[in-house]
Design brief:
about 80 residues, two-stranded parallel sheet, alpha+beta, 2 helices
Length: about 80
C-alpha cells in the first residue's frame, strides 16, 4: 500500500470482560506485524442503549482522570 501512496490503519477494540493484560499485549504485537502506518486502539464503550452496558454497569471506574485515558505512542 505504501508503494502506491496509501496510508494504512489497523484498529483494535479493548475493554471486554474476557480480556486479560496478556491478551492486549498479544493483540498489539499482532497489529505491529501488519506494519501499519497508524494503529488506533479503542476502548469498548458501554452506551446505555447497548446490551454491553448491562454487563458492565456495576463495574468501578479505575481511572477517573480523563486526561490519563489518552495514550500516544510514537515508534
Amino acid at each position: 500500500m505504501r508503494q502506491h501512496g496509501i496510508v494504512s490503519m489497523a484498529t483494535y477494540v479493548l475493554g471486554f470482560s474476557e480480556e486479560r493484560d496478556r491478551d492486549c499485549w498479544h493483540a498489539l504485537k499482532h497489529l505491529l506485524r501488519y506494519d501499519p502506518d497508524q494503529i488506533q486502539l479503542l476502548y469498548a464503550t458501554p452506551h446505555r442503549w447497548t446490551s454491553f452496558y448491562s454487563t458492565v454497569e456495576q463495574r468501578k471506574v479505575l481511572e477517573t482522570d480523563l486526561r490519563r485515558w489518552i495514550i500516544s505512542i510514537r515508534f
